């Protein structure tokens, strides 16, 4: 599932190709998406400009015209494929929404598994429950003190708490595993056992890892691609994720990476380094 670095990379691709441009046509191949599209979806967007794009957690918000906010979530397998004006649109089987801009550029929302979402937020999008309850942005306003406060009464494992978008926005399985390895924290530790210093370490290391991953264009495992079809390469820098049985990357450690299942998700970690 695309996490913060992958969504940020898609956002930057969209900004480069679409910002300030006017929507000429919207073609909808499928209305019955996870959030069903209203019949007038295309009509409401046509003739309006994409004035701003931003990311909140794993969501992209497209600000269109004076007061339309289109929310985009890639789900498990969603992609945004962008074709510049000089390159003809090439349809994919699961292109659900195809938008053509006034200058001939075009973008398609493709989602084979249909866990993704594209919808118009009515009224103020920030007041929607999913955004109103969302935790800090790890690259902006997150602090060790804030994390410590949100963990101190929680009995869930730290791994699960960091996946909770109400605690911190945008992290998923990959970047939580990598963060806990770098912070040397056992993913099984209970949230309320995390000290203020450890909370600070988690914030610092997650920020470092996210910045490195954005520089690498995200991690391409199964479905994720950039808006131009190219791949991210941070998966080559994983210290623990998907590395079960391989030697720990800490030179002084003789252990191999373990995999356990927590809340139905794989956790990869080093049981010697992470305490
Ligand atoms: Zn180790």
If you had to describe this structure to a student in words, what would you say it looks like?
By secondary structure, the chain is an alpha+beta fold. The chain has 2 domains: 4-132, MutM-like, N-terminal (N-terminal domain of MutM-like DNA repair proteins), CATH 3.20.190.10; 144-269, Helicase, Ruva Protein, domain 3, CATH 1.10.8. 25% of the residues lie in helices and 21% in strands. The protein has 7 helices and 10 strands. The strands form 3 sheets. Strands 1-6-7-5 form a 4-stranded antiparallel sheet. A hairpin with a 4-residue loop joins strand 6 (95-101) and strand 7. The longest helix has 20 residues, at 196-215. It is elongated and about 60 Å long. The two termini are 27 Å apart. The model has no long low-confidence stretch (mean pLDDT 97). The structure holds zinc ion. Residues 248, 250, 253, 255, 270, 272-273 line the site of zinc ion.
Provide the fold topology.
Blueprint: H1 4-18, E1 23-28, H2 41-45, E2 50-56, E3 59-64, E4 68-73, E5 79-83, E6 95-101, E7 106-110, E8 117-121, H3 129-132, H4 144-151, H5 158-163, H6 173-182, H7 196-215, E9 258-262, E10 265-269
Antiparallel strand pairs: 1-6, 2-3, 3-4, 4-8, 5-7, 6-7, 9-10
Bound molecules: zinc ion.
Kindly list the characteristics that best describe this protein.
4-stranded antiparallel β-sheet, 275 residues, N-terminal domain of MutM-like DNA repair proteins, 7 helices, alpha+beta, Helicase, Ruva Protein, domain 3, 25% helix, binds zinc ion
Care to give the gist of this entry?
The chain is built from seven helices and ten strands. The protein is α+β, with helices and mostly antiparallel strands.
């Amino acid at each position: 599932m695309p996490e913060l670095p992958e969504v940020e990379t898609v956002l930057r691709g969209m900004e480069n190709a679409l910002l300030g441009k006017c929507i000429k046509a919207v073609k909808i191949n499928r209305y019955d998406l996870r959030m069903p599209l209203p019949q007038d979806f295309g009509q409401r967007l046509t003739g309006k400009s994409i004035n701003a794009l931003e990311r909140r957690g794993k969501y992209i918000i497209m600000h269109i015209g004076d007061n339309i906010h289109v929310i985009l979530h890639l789900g498990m397998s969603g992609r945004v494929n962008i074709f510049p004006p000089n390159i003809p649109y090439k349809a994919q089987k699961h292109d659900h929404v195809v938008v053509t801009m006034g200058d001939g550029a075009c973008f398609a929302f493709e989602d084979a598994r249909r866990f993704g979402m594209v919808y118009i937020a009515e009224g103020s999008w920030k007041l929607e429950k999913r955004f109103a309850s969302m935790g800090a942005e790890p690259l902006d306003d997150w602090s060790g003190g804030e994390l410590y406060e949100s963990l101190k009464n929680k009995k869930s494992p730290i791994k699960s708490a960091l996946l909770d978008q109400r605690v911190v926005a945008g992290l998923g399985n990959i970047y939580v595993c990598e963060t806990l390895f770098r912070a040397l924290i056992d993913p099984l530790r209970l949230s309320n056992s995390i000290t203020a210093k450890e909370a600070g370490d988690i914030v610092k290391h997650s920020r470092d890892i996210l910045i490195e991953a954005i520089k690498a264009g995200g991690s391409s495992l199964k479905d994720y691609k950039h808006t131009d079809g190219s791949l991210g390469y941070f998966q080559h820098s994983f210290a623990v994720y998907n590395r079960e049985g391989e030697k720990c990357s800490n030179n002084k450690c003789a252990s191999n990476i373990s995999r356990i299942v927590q809340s139905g998700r794989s956790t990869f970690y080093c049981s010697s380094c992470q305490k």
